[in-house]
Amino acid sequence: MKIGIVLYPTFGGSGVVATELGKALAKKGHEIHFITYSQPVRLGRFRENIFYHEVSVSDYPLFEFQPYETTLASKIYDVVKYEGLDILHVHYAIPHASSAFMAQQILSEEGINIPFVTTLHGTDITLIGKDPSFVPVVQFCINASNAVTAVSESLKVETLRHFNLQKDIHVVPNFIETDLEITEAPASVRKAYASLEEPILCHISNFRKVKRVEDVIRVFDLVNKSLPSKLLMVGDGPDRYACEQLCRTLGLCDRIIFLGKLRDTRHVLEIADVFILPSETESFGLAALEAMAVGVPVISSNTGGIPEVNVHGYSGFLSEVGAVESMASNCLLLLDPRNKERYRKQAYEQAKKFNLDRIVPLYEEIYHTLVPLK
Ligand code: GMT
Fold this sequence. Notes:
The protein is α/β, with parallel strands linked by helices. The chain folds into two domains: about 1-175 and about 355-370, Rossmann fold; about 185-350, 3-Layer(aba) Sandwich (Rossmann fold), CATH 3.40.50.2000. It is about 40% helix and about 15% strand. It has 15 helices and 13 strands. It has helices at about 15-25, 70-85, 95-110, 125, 135-145, 155-160, 185-190, 215-225, 240-250, 265-270, 285-290, 305-310, 325-335, 340-350, 355-370; strands at about 1-5, 30-35, 50-55, 85-90, 115-120, 145-150, 170, 200-205, 230-235, 255-260, 275, 300, 315-320. The N and C termini lie close together (about 5 Å). The site of ligand GMT has 20 residues, from helix 1 and helix 4. Ligand GMT binds near residues 92, 121, 281, 284 and 286.
C-alpha cells in the first residue's frame, strides 16, 4: 500500500509514534510518504520505501500568522495525486485532520478518492481540543475521518464524553520494539554519571506544565535523603527553568543532571534504575513504555491512560497526582536490592505486551477495511 503519514516532526510522543509506525510499515513493504514541515526527529538514516515531503510555509508579509493548515492541505493534495497514495494516516487531530479533509474534498472533485485515518494522541483532545475555539472543527473532523483511532481506552472514553460523535473509535495502543533480552549499558557509560552504589533515576519529557516536572525533583529529593542517588533529566521546555531553580533551592545541583533534548533516549534509559512520570494527565505515557522496554520500572501518577501501561505493583507503582511522598517511598521499594531484579524483569515483560509486531497489524487491518484491494 502507498501510505501518507501526516505528523508533527518534533520530540513529542505523537511524532515519535507516527515515525516509528512509518518505519515499521516500510519494513513490511509498504511505501511510506511522511508529510510535515521539517524532518521527523526519529526518521534518521536513508531507508528503503521511505519518502519525506516537506511543507514549506511562505512568509508573505501580509500574513501575521502563516496559514499552515492551507499549505499542508495543498501539499497533501499534491502528494496523494502525484505519488498515487492509497490512504492517509494523520496523527494528532489539530490541524492535520482538517487539512486531510480539505485535500480529500478537492481530490474528490477530480475523481480521486482518498480515505484518511485520524489517530488521536491526547493533548489534541484533553487540552487543546477542549478549547471552545477548536471544538466545532475537531468534532467535525473526527466525524469526517474514514476511521478514528485513540492510543488508549481512557482517551477513547474522554473523547466520547467531550464530543458529539457518530464515529466508532478503535483503540490501538502505542507500541515499542522490544529486544529478546534486557540490554545492559556498558559500565563505563554508567560510571560517567553515578558511582556503583548510587541508583540512577530518570525523567524524560517536554517539560510542559502537564508533566509536573517539579514533582520529579521533589520525589528525587526524598529518595536521595534515604539513599544517595542521581537524577537524569532529559528534554527541555517551559518548566525547565523552574526545575533548575528548585534544584538550587534544595541544594541538589551536584545530584541532578540536565541533559537537554536527545534524539535517541534509549542509551540514557539503559543506565537508569527507575523512571519517574508524575504527569497531571497522560493519554498513554510513551516515555514510560520506552523505559519499561529496556527493563526500567516506572513510578507514575495514576491518571488518563497510564494505568493501561504501567501496572501497579508489577511494572512499577502508581500514586495520586502530586503525591510525592507516596511516589518516593514506592521508588525506594523498587530500588531495594531484594526487589530490584524482579521489578526490572516485570517491567520488561509488561512492555512486551506492546510489542510492535502485535500492534502494527492492527493499523494495517484498519487500512485494509478502507482500501480493500491492496
Ligand atoms: O505530551 C507529550 O509528550 C506530547 C504529546 C504529543 O501529542 O505529541 O503526547 C501525547 O501523545 C503521546 C503519544 O501517543 C502519548 O504517549 C502521551 O501520553 C500524550 N500526552 C498527553 O496526553 C499529555
